[in-house]
Amino acid sequence: MSDTTMLETQTIEAIYEGGVLRPLQTLSGLSEGGKVKITIAQPARSTTDDNGTAGDRPHPLLKFAGTIDDAEAAELQRIIADEFRKIDYNEW
Question: 27-64: string of b/e by CB count within 10 Å (b at 16+)?
Fold first, then answer.
């Protein structure tokens, strides 16, 4: 398929079971053995617990925890506080 080929798109829901995506509705316009391109989008989980996890997944920023020492963290907090004090809220 070339980059200039027009693509017909469908948005469907599917369930992932045993390593296979199973559509929850009939797919139209596909021939048996036809090749498709799939983009995966998972519903966002908005609730987090005290451990920074959303359901059974860790919070995406949790991987950065512990990557800087206390002195660096304090310096970053100081810089952020200083810079935000320079904002003129009346400009907005």
Answer: eeeeeeeeeeeeeeeeeeeeeeeeeeeeeeeeeeeeee
